[in-house]
Write the structure tokens for this entry.
Amino acid sequence: MNEQETIIGIGKVLAVCISDIKGIQKTEIPEGNLVEDWGIEGDAHAGKWHRQVSLLSFEKIEEFRAKGAEVDFGAFGENLIVEGFDLRTIPVGTRFKIGDALLELTQIGKECHSHCAIYKVMGDCIMPREGVFTKVLKGGTVKAGDKVEQLALDPARPFSAAVITLSDKGSRGEREDKSGPLIVERLEKEGYDVVETLLLPDERFKLEYELKRLTDQRQVNVIFTTGGTGFSERDVTPEATLAVCDRTAPGIAEAMRWYSLQITPRAMLSRQASGIRKKTLIINMPGSPKACREDLDFILPSLAHGLGILRGTEGECGNEAFGNHHHHEHHHHDHE
């Protein structure tokens, strides 16, 4: 880790809590052992996934207590109670240093499927709204009183991506998904950090739900879908995409169609869409692996500029931190 990293926020650990099974209140422990890419030793939520250690702002617990709730630390299923941060406003990808340990924020909030004991009493729970999740980049011990340092995001960090394949047959295991893995491989080769891959049936509601979750909770920079863009009655990918987008970005889909039309006139039958939800770009790719490969070759060189603008790491003239901005600008004007 670079020792010169900028600290942009300082807070404090007030409690460390664990439970040996999921879905129950956690109990405070004097000291926790954070294990790299696992979580807190002895905690049921530890494991090889992105939600290893949960954090909750002490200030939010106090607000909840003010409503008359008797809640101990750990009551919401949180691992670390910290003060000094409004956690849910901090962007995914942010790292927190606690002593030797290093955590990286991976998700904001969560879905509450089975209501906890508190919800049953109070009719409310703050974890789904206020809780955040991290993975352990570097282990170490953590205890009440420890200083928590929020580190500035690296402007040159890789873009995060998710890939969703839409296929009724694929989701039933009747057909091998070839397009999804092809997109993943191409993105990784290009330096993207692919954080999730999904294989879904051609169902609009399910796709909308996942697009919202990946945008709102995981804050991925770009989501690629493949499949469901044709004329068949079950092809609803563009409708789901446009339903969740705040703004359109039709040029990307138009560019791919234009490019594919040079190869086959049938490309006019593609209904693929592209748009923006919050700071996430959503792009519908064709279902065919061959068409996916061709379209990716065509759009990837220009995509980084747009993604940089969306997440705020590009487009500010004269700022050295944002690297090759001018290169993109000149490149852009050459084509006008």
